[in-house]
Amino acid sequence: MAILLLLQRRQQVTAAEVARELEVSERTARRDLDALGTAGVPVYSVPGRGGGWRLVGGARTDLSGLTAGEARALFLVAGPAASVTPAVRAALRKLVHALPEPFRAQAEAAASSFVTDPRRWGSDRAVPPLPRFLGALQDAVIRGVQVRLGYADRAGSETRRTVHPLGVVAKGPSWYLVADTAAGRRTFRIDRVSSAEPTGEPVHRPGDFDLAESWRVLADEFDRKRTPVEAHAVCAPSGMGVLRIAFGGRLEVGGPTPDGRIEVVVRGSDEGTLAGELAALVTWVEVTGPPGVRAQLASIGNTLVARYG
């Protein structure tokens, strides 16, 4: 694509110019120019001094329809602060470098216009490096081939299985593989993958598969397994904003009560932890059940009174 855009912009290029512009060898440049012709692009060579490669009749591609805004967006993805692999960044930058000159100044400025700092305030934890097998698994998804996967669970026990890679998802600092297995659709944390060997066999990809929707279903299921305890409560309308901030996706909002409060359900990992989170919201929230969470709240209240009078 980058070579094609170069041909459109300059009308004629030599293999040496392509090699210099795209930072490849002249041999690679000639091979790729030949590949364009094999792929059906009407490109031909002009022999002799002053010759080079041209497009028959000035043939064009839809990529030349990129707007200035789209060019800037490509450079945002390819910029030094972007969280993409070096190979992706290099490929995108080479592509955009082939755009017409009026697009390039602002596009290049966009590459250095922002910085992403994934660390939270108050945290000095270093950003984890990209998982070792991320690139191999992305490649398997793109090529549609099955993978023999070595995987260590949370306890460190390692298993091997053949999976059908369907997509890769970044969740915060963690990367996950969504794949079909003999036991159904599963997710695998890629930093726990110990080996990834493509088998060459094609992936059986459902025709209606949608990665975003599949991830939403899997993530909801996983989140519910992490937070199996539910507490029922009523909340004053003035406290709903605080409640949403505190519990996020672990909050389900119901209807109003006769006294004007709002029925809610919140989830937590266990009764003690959930009671600890709810204790801070006592100004707005009254827990109605289960009894175990209410008992934990009473215990917290007694401890506070005993300590602080």
Description:
A hairpin with a 5-residue loop joins β2 and β3. The protein starts with a helix and ends with a helix. 40% of the residues lie in helices and 26% in strands. The protein has helices spanning 2-10, 15-22, 26-38, 68-78, 86-97, 101-111, 134-143, 211-226, 240-247, 271-279, 291-308, and strands spanning 12-13, 43-46, 52-55, 145-152, 158-171, 174-181, 184-189, 193-202, 229-235, 251-256, 262-268, 285-289. The model has no long low-confidence stretch (mean pLDDT 84). The strands form three sheets. A five-stranded antiparallel beta sheet has the order 7-6-5-4-8. The chain is an alpha+beta fold. α4 (68-78) runs antiparallel to α5 and α10 packs across α11. The chain is built from eleven helices and twelve strands. It folds into four domains: 2-63, Arc Repressor Mutant, subunit A, CATH 1.10.10.10; 66-111, no CATH class; 134-224, SH3 type barrels; 227-308, Alpha-Beta Plaits (2-Layer Sandwich). It is elongated and about 95 Å long. This is DNA-binding transcriptional regulator YafY. Residues 1-61 form the HTH deoR-type domain. Keywords: DNA-binding, Transcription, Transcription regulation. InterPro entries: CBASS_pafABC_assoc_protein, DeoR_HTH, HTH_11, PafC-like, WCX_dom, WH-like_DNA-bd_sf, WH_DNA-bd_sf, WYL_dom. GO terms for molecular function: DNA binding; DNA-binding transcription factor activity.
